[in-house]
Amino acid sequence: MSVAERLQGQVAVVVGAGQTPGETLGNGRAAALLLARAGARVACVDRDLDRARETELLIQEQGGDAIALRADIRNKNDCDSVVVAVRERWERIDVLVNNVGIGSKSDGPAHRVDESALDLVLDVNLKGAWRMISAVLPLMREQGFGSIVNVSSLASVAGGFQVAYEVSKAALNRLTASVAISSAGKGVRCNAVAPGLMDTPMAVAGIAKATGVDMNALREERNKRVPLGGKMGTAWDTAYAILFLASSESRFITGAVLPVDGGAGVRVG
Predict the structure, then answer these.
(1) What does 34-100 look like in DSSP terms, one character per residue?
(2) What's the gap between Cα 206 and its chain centre?
(3) How many Å separate Cα 63 from the centre of its chain?
(4) CB under 8 Å to 68, separation ≥6 — which residues?
(5) Alpha helices in the chain (DSSP H)
(6) Out of 42, 230, 253, 264, which residue is the most buried by the measure of CB atoms under 10 Å away?
(7) Domain map of the chain by residue range?
């Protein structure tokens, strides 16, 4: 089966389909582009409508069908509105990709993290995914079909210095399992991908700016920490994992957290 046939005729919602500006590609935009190439009609959802429209235009330039929608996943009404808009246009939703995730300068180990940072990161990374899932599940359960893919992180099982981010992603893994088992009888699957060290704008440019570290030096340091080939992954690595879990090729897989980390997770423990 070619890439162009893997999601033929399906409708995908990619939340976080815009991206942080930078010289590389972000996970959300890569996922939206790849799902469109696989034949899906794609709703590109982002808090920043201009960034969502950039992704929409890229898909259309490649011959795909896409729309851009603005939503803040901290707002339940925004999440519900996305489902309404997509259903009105295409009548169904087959795939939901929850790619939104943030960190905070005020994050840190448990004895230092600022409570406001903990609240914000959990609200976006965990509750934001839950809001979108709860909005789309009634339709998917009614259809008797659907695939939800959450973007977790290696930090869900490793780390120790960003308790808000780590706990939010660990909780997202558990949310994935809970949704998987509670909706399996209705034909809805829910899985997650857990990227490790990736060369994306948020991960590299964002950290370099926040810490004042030279971006090239940071990229070199991160590369050295990757067991497989000594080089970070790219957004395409995350996107292809998302495509697999979204497609019928993974039809008998639900509740899984798929590492996309170049072997970094093997070191844990």
Answers:
(1) HHHHTT-EEEEEESSHHHHHHHHHHHHHTT--EEEEE--TT-HHHHHHHHHHHHHHHS---EEEE--
(2) 17
(3) 24
(4) 17, 43, 44, 45, 46, 49, 52, 53, 55, 56
(5) 27-37, 49-61, 76-90, 115-122, 128-143, 163-183, 206-211, 215-224, 235-246
(6) 42
(7) 3-196+233-256
Instruction: Give me the active site residues, please.
Output: 165
Residue 103 pairs in a beta bridge with none
Tell me, which fold does domain 3-196+233-256 have in CATH?
A: Rossmann fold (3.40.50)
Q: What averages of pLDDT result for each successive group of 10 residues across the chain (269 residues)?
A: 84 96 94 98 98 98 98 98 98 98 95 97 98 98 98 95 97 98 98 97 85 91 96 98 98 98 86
> What is the spatial distance between Cα 65 and Cα 61, in angstroms, rounded to a whole number?
9
User: Phi/psi class of residue 94: alpha, beta or left (left: φ > 0; alpha: ψ in -120 to 50)?
Assistant: alpha
The pLDDT of residue 120:
98
